[in-house]
Amino acid sequence: MRLKYVNAILIIVLLFFTYINSSSSKDKECMANYMPPINIFILCFNEEVLLPHTIEHYKRNLPSCQITIYDNESTDNSVQIAKDLGCNVISWSSNNIIDDHKYIEIKNNCWKNVNNGWILMIDMDEWVNVTEEDLQNEMQNGTTILNIKGYNMIGESMNEELSDINLHQINKGVEYDMESKKLCFLKNAITDMNYSPGAHICDPKGDIKYSEKVYINKHMSSLGLPFLITKMRNRYERAKEMQKQGYATHYTDNADIITSEYNDALQKSRIIL
């Protein structure tokens, strides 16, 4: 009789540990497949040409993402395009000038109401090459900030609307350290990014672990000479106050300088993707 009881207890213990192991395996599988929220915040002013392509880039690579556009009172169709594409739009004012101080205030704080998940804090011309699978893997690795290498992508459009090229097929560029920014981080672990003007430098706080993998940030600016000249001239006009303070000094309205720099980059460009 005693042997029967012992056997019964052994069977119960065996079934218990089998259940525990099965549950543990299922939990691990669920964790491996878990995709935390992805929130993308994009600054915008009169970006009707580039905006739909940027949204397409991120929705293609990060289909579950939520995109919020911080619109600086655009006067073109940017806001309507963003809403039509399912983006949340928040308007803010800088009295029709480029104000790097307000830009940084937004970049350092707009994401803090998000409870958890991945944050991408970008400009409209910053296309980070990262997928949901990549972010899942980085979660498993304990990564909290992505290492990013910047490239200035070179397109050869002949019109301001970029209607004669496919932006998503541009694969030539030149290394551009100014765009090697810390643009993607895990809200659960990071409490502050402390971006400086331009977000080229930051001093993050929290549980910091950089990814071993280096991700590409495609700076989608030099997409064609007509587009670039118009963009630079418009930004130069709005940046005059900031230039007095030593910011935004790379903007110019000199077409000869813009053309020379574009042609130099085009000549030096190489296939990076």
Notes on the structure:
The chain has 273 residues and is of the alpha/beta class. It has a domain at 35-222: Spore Coat Polysaccharide Biosynthesis Protein SpsA, Chain A. The chain contains 8 helices and 12 strands. The protein has helices at residues 2-33, 51-61, 78-84, 100-109, 132-141, 225-238, 240-244, 255-268; strands at 38-44, 66-71, 88-91, 118-123, 126-128, 145-154, 172-175, 184-186, 190-192, 205-206, 210-222, 270-271. The strands form 3 sheets. A 5-stranded mixed sheet has the order 3-2-1-4-8, sandwiched between helices. Helix 3 (78-84) links the parallel strand 2 and strand 3. Helix 6 packs across helix 8. The N and C termini lie far apart (73 Å).
Element string (H = helix, E = strand): HEHEHEHEEHEEEEEEHHHE
- Poorly predicted regions are 23-31
* Total DSSP helices: 8
Tell me the CATH topology of one domain: Spore Coat Polysaccharide Biosynthesis Protein SpsA, Chain A
Please compute the radius of gyration using only Cα atoms: 24 Å
What helical percentage do the residues reach? 25-40%
| Percentage beta strand | 15-25%
